[in-house]
Amino acid sequence: MAGPRLIGRTVPEVAGKALGKKGLAFGALITEWPSVVGHQLAQRTQPDRLSFPRGKREDATLHIRAMGAIALELQHLEPLIIEKINGFFGYRAVARIKLVHAAPAVPPPRRPPPPRPLSMDEEIAVINATAAVEDADLRAVLERFGRSLLARPAPSTRRRPG
């Protein structure tokens, strides 16, 4: 058995297999999509495929999944988006964008509901539970933790079929 390996040498091997012909550059674009095009566009779009002309690694067509009115906005922003993508790659990797009318494959993550305000009894219970802690910083952290636990929404009581 060989010794430990640097992770930087392992990632291309593993990611290359997962991404297939799309390559590592496309994988980097997928993971960095929000920082490349901005958070607002990234929530409603997703890079789908990067098609290079045969035998070339530049002047590609980037296929972007978009649905509804955002497609029109993307058409107007195409030169700016291409400039941002090429700035990300560091060379003229993308020459044009083709829109694919489809919802992004991965929906944006849902934000957790905001915590509810604690009742006076709950607030007193948190303070009483941490009163014996002598260290003021630790007590403050434990109080915040207790408040966050009590403020969580109740778990769903719905049963799963099956």
Layout of secondary structure:
Elements: H1 7-19, H2 23-31, H3 33-37, H4 39-44, E1 45-51, E2 60-66, H5 70-89, E3 94-101, H6 120-130, H7 136-151
Parallel strand pairs: 2-3
Antiparallel strand pairs: 1-2
Helix pairs in contact: 1-2, 6-7
User: Number of folding domains?
Assistant: 2
> Per DSSP, what share of the residues sits in E-state strands of 2 or more residues?
5-15%
Average of the residue pLDDT scores: 81
Helix-strand sequence: HHHHEEHEHH
Distance between the termini: 46 Å
Keywords:
162 residues, alpha+beta, GMP Synthetase, Chain A, domain 3, 2 domains, three-stranded mixed β-sheet, 7 helices, 49% helix, elongated
Q: Can you walk me through this structure?
A:
With 162 residues, this protein is α+β, with helices and mostly antiparallel strands. The protein folds into 2 domains: 14-101, DnaA, N-terminal domain (GMP Synthetase, Chain A, domain 3), CATH 3.30.300.180; 120-151, no CATH class. 49% of the residues lie in helices and 14% in strands. It has 7 helices and 3 strands; from the N terminus they run H-H-H-H-E-E-H-E-H-H. It has a 3-stranded mixed sheet with strand order 1-2-3. It is elongated.
What's the short version?
With 162 residues, the protein is of the alpha+beta class.
